[in-house]
């Protein structure tokens, strides 16, 4: 079975993205087997079209988990 993957979509200079990153990385300290990556929507035209007004976006295994504000408890439950 593949490890769970968390992807944070955002862009440079986005304060909500900075907040989301802090929450996600803190929660992920409790889940060391989860893989984490971050991607700027500015680097991918398809992501920019899809999420320009909705960042940050957190995906778990390629499925949208949350948009805009990350709730630490909700993320923990999804990863447990």
Describe this structure in words.
Helix content is 36%, strand content 26%. It is of the alpha+beta class and 80 residues long. It has a single domain, classed as 3-Layer(aba) Sandwich (Glutaredoxin), CATH 3.40.30.10. Strands 2-1-3-4 form a four-stranded mixed β-sheet, with helices on one face. The longest helix has 14 residues. It starts with a strand and ends with a helix. The relative contact order is 0.27. The mean pLDDT is 96.
CATH architecture: 3-Layer(aba) Sandwich
Order of helices and strands: EHEHEEH
Q: Kindly state the percentage of residues in helix.
A: 25-40%
Record the strand order, biggest sheet: 2-1-3-4
Helix/strand layout:
Elements: E1 5-10, H1 15-28, E2 35-40, H2 45-51, E3 57-60, E4 63-67, H3 72-79
Parallel strand pairs: 1-2
Antiparallel strand pairs: 1-3, 3-4
Characterize this entry briefly.
The chain has 80 residues and is α+β, with helices and mostly antiparallel strands. Helices cover 36% and strands 26% of the residues. The protein has one domain (5-79): Glutaredoxin (3-Layer(aba) Sandwich).
Tag the structure with descriptive keywords.
Glutaredoxin; 80 residues; alpha+beta; 3 helices
């Amino acid at each position: 079975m593949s490890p769970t993957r968390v992807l944070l979509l955002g862009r440079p200079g986005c304060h909500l993205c900075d907040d989301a990153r802090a929450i996600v990385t803190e929660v992920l300290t409790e889940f060391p087997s989860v893989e984490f990556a971050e991607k700027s929507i500015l680097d991918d035209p398809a992501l920019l079209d899809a999420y320009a007004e909705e960042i940050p976006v957190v995906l778990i295994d390629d499925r949208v988990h949350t948009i805009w504000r990350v709730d630490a408890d909700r993320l923990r439950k999804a990863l447990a």
